[in-house]
């Protein structure tokens, strides 16, 4: 019996050790579960995704000397200048004029030894900063539609850039180091004066000078097979919960809706789709730069850049922004088909959402045929506008563009794009009529 206490002690020690071992095992045990594969969310791609600098682009550049103006709308030639500018460090952005008189504004844009870069709509500084390199710690939200590279206005250290809003007359100035001048002149300016087309203007047309190519030019013509984006792709790409979408109507007038009251309908004649979320309607204005950034992000969510759509203008007070179809760097207009991507933003439950989204659902992809056509000279265009039954000073822009229509020979199968001259008055684009250049006069939004 003398060993009983020792045995009890040893047994108690073993129990304590076993308890600690079991506790440690429980704490550190990791169960092995069979792996369950998650089902990935369906990604809808109508076309391509694009960066902001691919959809916010200039459409024309003019190079001015004492004797002449040379210009281009060719994308490669415009990109040559932009490629050089993207290497610059732009600094000290300042406002130098809020309401510049027309004569002074003209000298800023069209004086000698400078290049004027044209954008089709107002571009806010934060957007251009995402494309170029502005080194200032802060910058204005102000917008401009012209950038002037004034290499003739150079000090020992810097030459000038002017950011001009041609509608309001506001002018900002920026500086670039003169060390960039030699590269600019050798790579861009000298080839431009040697090789680009001569541009002319008329004192009778427009409040500000409007420069267009002096001579007649041959432009391409196109015939595309009619191809459409499948409707189900648009349903999957635009509705938050496609499985809850219901359809009403017939093959000609179809309407889709869901439990959130979002609606989507199709216009067969214009080949357009209109999506509306009524609960997101608002009267709040938009910040211009945010309008561009968030719209690009929204369209990228469904890879909605099905063709070459470019930023064309905005109405910040209405939260509205437009992107227009381009062909060969020229805008496309149509009385038959929708040629704009239009987005109107709103707010629902304190969250920014798209209120309305209208866009084409055709795709210009399979080329049926191509050719060329000579457009009348710019001299003939200016002469015609001077003598038309309109006030020439009310004309704000003149461009070469494309007219999209159903093909005359095969209207059910082909879409044709034909070059034409267009002018803009009071916000309306109009094709120059046939009785002066060949064609009926059409007003286009």
Summarize the structure.
By secondary structure, this protein is of the alpha+beta class. It has helices spanning 4-28, 52-55, 75-85, 102-110, 125-131, 181-195, 231-238, 288-301, 378-386; strands at 60-64, 69-72, 91-97, 114-124, 143-154, 158-164, 171-177, 197-200, 212-213, 217-225, 227-228, 246-249, 254-257, 263-267, 272-276, 309-315, 320-327, 330-333, 340-348, 351-360, 362-363, 367-375, 395-406, 414-425, 428-431, 442-444.
Itemize the secondary structure elements and their pairings.
Layout: H1 4-28, H2 52-55, E1 60-64, E2 69-72, H3 75-85, E3 91-97, H4 102-110, E4 114-124, H5 125-131, E5 143-154, E6 158-164, E7 171-177, H6 181-195, E8 197-200, E9 212-213, E10 217-225, E11 227-228, H7 231-238, E12 246-249, E13 254-257, E14 263-267, E15 272-276, H8 288-301, E16 309-315, E17 320-327, E18 330-333, E19 340-348, E20 351-360, E21 362-363, E22 367-375, H9 378-386, E23 395-406, E24 414-425, E25 428-431, E26 442-444
Parallel strand pairs: 18-23
Antiparallel strand pairs: 1-2, 1-4, 2-8, 3-7, 4-5, 5-6, 6-7, 8-9, 10-22, 10-24, 11-21, 12-13, 13-14, 14-15, 15-20, 16-17, 17-18, 17-19, 19-20, 23-24, 24-25, 25-26
């Amino acid at each position: 019996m003398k060993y009983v206490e020792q045995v009890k002690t040893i047994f108690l020690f073993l129990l304590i050790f076993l308890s600690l071992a079991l506790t440690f095992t429980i704490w550190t045990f990791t169960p092995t579960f069979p792996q369950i594969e998650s089902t990935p969310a369906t990604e809808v791609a109508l076309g391509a995704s694009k960066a902001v600098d691919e959809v916010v682009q200039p459409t024309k550049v003019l190079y001015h000397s004492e004797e002449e103006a040379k210009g281009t709308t060719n994308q490669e030639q415009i990109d040559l200048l932009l490629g050089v500018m993207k290497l610059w460090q732009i600094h000290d952005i300042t406002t130098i004029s809020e309401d510049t008189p027309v004569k002074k504004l003209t000298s800023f844009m069209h004086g000698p030894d400078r290049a004027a870069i044209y954008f089709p709509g107002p571009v806010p500084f934060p957007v251009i900063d995402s494309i170029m390199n502005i080194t200032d710690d802060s910058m204005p939200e102000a917008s401009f539609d012209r950038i002037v590279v004034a290499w003739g206005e150079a000090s020992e250290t810097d030459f000038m850039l002017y950011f001009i809003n041609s509608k309001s007359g506001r002018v900002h100035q920026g500086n670039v180091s003169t060390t960039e001048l030699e590269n600019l002149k050798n790579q861009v300016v000298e080839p431009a004066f040697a090789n680009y087309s001569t541009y002319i203007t008329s004192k009778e047309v427009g409040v500000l000078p409007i420069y267009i190519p002096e001579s007649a030019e041959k432009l391409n013509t196109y015939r595309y097979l009619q191809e459409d984006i499948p409707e189900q792709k648009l349903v999957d790409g635009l509705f938050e919960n496609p499985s809850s979408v219901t359809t009403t109507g017939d093959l000609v007038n179809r309407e889709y809706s869901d439990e959130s009251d979002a609606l989507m309908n199709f216009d067969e004649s214009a080949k357009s789709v209109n999506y509306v979320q009524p609960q997101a309607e608002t009267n709040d204005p938009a910040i211009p730069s945010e309008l561009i950034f968030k719209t690009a992000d929204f369209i990228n969510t469904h890879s909605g850049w099905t063709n070459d759509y470019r930023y064309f203008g905005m109405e910040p007070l209405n939260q509205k922004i437009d992107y227009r179809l381009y062909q060969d760097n020229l805008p496309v207009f149509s009385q038959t088909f929708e040629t704009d991507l239009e987005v109107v933003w709103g707010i629902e439950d304190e969250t920014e959402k798209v209120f309305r989204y209208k866009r084409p659902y055709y795709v210009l992809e399979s080329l049926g045929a191509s050719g060329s056509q000579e457009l009348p000279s710019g001299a003939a265009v200016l002469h015609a506008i001077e003598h038309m039954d309109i006030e020439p000073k009310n004309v704000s822009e003149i461009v070469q563009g494309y007219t999209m229509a159903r093909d005359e020979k095969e209207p059910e199968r082909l879409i044709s794009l034909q070059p034409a001259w267009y002018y803009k008055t009071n916000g309306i684009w109009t094709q120059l009529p046939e009785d002066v250049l060949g064609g009926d006069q059409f007003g286009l939004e």
